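Lab notebook, bench 4. The sequencing result for the construct came back, and we need a structural model before the next group meeting so we can plan mutations. Quick request posted to the team channel:

Model the 3D structure of this chain.
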Amino acid sequence: MVAATNRDLREEIKAGRFREDLWFRLSVFALQVPPLRERTEDILPLAEALLAELGAELGRKGAALGSVAKERMLRYPFPGNVRELRNVLERALVLEPGPELELPVLDGRAPLRDVSPGGAPFNVPGAPIPMEDLERRYARHVLEQLGGRRVEAAKALGLSYPTFLKRIED
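Done. Here's the predicted structure in C-alpha cell form:
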C-alpha cells in the first residue's frame, strides 16, 4: 500500500487526530519527498513527462513547452505540488491552441473568473459554424472560466464527465 500526506503523522498521533495502530501498519517503509517548490531541478523533467502522458491522453502529442513556459514554471512556487503542475499542463493542452505552450496562467495566478450570466461573455464572431464546433468552443470557454477544473465544468454544463471530455476534444 502506498499512502501520502502533507501532515506530520507523529504529531497527529500525539494530538489524537490519527490512529497509532494505522501508523504502524503504514510506516513499514517511509519516504520523505520534499514539495516541488523545494526541488526546482525536478520541475522541467517532471513537466515534460506529464506533458507527454497528457498529450497522448488528450490527442495533443505534438505539444511542447516553450521557453516562456519553462521560465514561468521555474518561477512559480506550485503550492499545490505535483498535482497542481499536472492540472496546469492539462489546462494548457485543452486551452492553448499552438504546438508550443506558454502557460500564461502561471503569471500572477489570477483568481478564477465567474461563469455566471454576469461572468465573461461567450462570443462567436464571424460566419455561422456547425453546432458541434460551437458546443466544443463553449465547453472550453466554461472550462477556462472555471480555472481548468474539468469536473466542475462538466457539472456546470449538465454533462457527464466522459461526455464533457469528448466535447472538448479536437
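Confidence is low (pLDDT under 50) at residues 110-118.
Will bring this to the meeting.
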